[in-house]
Amino acid sequence: MAMPRRGSRLITVDGTGFRWRVRNKPTYCQGNDWSPLTFAAERAEKPGDVLVVSLPCARPDN
């Protein structure tokens, strides 16, 4: 399933375009700083394969 285009941002890495999006509202665990920041990314040219990325830091809006 492809990500919605609304609310996502474009980034280019090594000449390949990606679309990424962070969830608008943090989950309960993310809001309490118990789990790391996660976001979804997919290739801009071939939407459909979504990669979920987890970073070793908290959400900046906590």
Strand content: 35-45%
Could you give a short account of the major beta sheet?
A: 4 strands, antiparallel
Number of strands: 4
- Which stretches are poorly predicted, pLDDT < 50 over at least 5 residues? none
Q: Which percent bin holds the helix content?
A: under 10%
- C-alpha Rg (nearest Å): 13 Å
Give the oligomeric state: single chain
Structural class: mainly beta
Which series of helices and strands comes N to C? EEHEE
Tally of distinct domains: 1
Number of helices: 1
**Averaging pLDDT over every residue, what do you get?**
84
Strand order of the largest sheet: 1-2-3-4
Shape: elongated
Instruction: State the end-to-end distance.
Output: 29 Å
Q: What does it look like?
A:
With 62 residues, this protein is mainly β. It has one domain (9-54). 6% of the residues lie in helices and 35% in strands. It has one helix at 28-31, and strands spanning 9-13, 16-22, 38-43, 51-54. The protein has a four-stranded antiparallel beta sheet with strand order 1-2-3-4, with no helix packed on it. The longest helix has 4 residues, at 28-31. The radius of gyration is 13 Å and the shape is elongated. The relative contact order is 0.27.
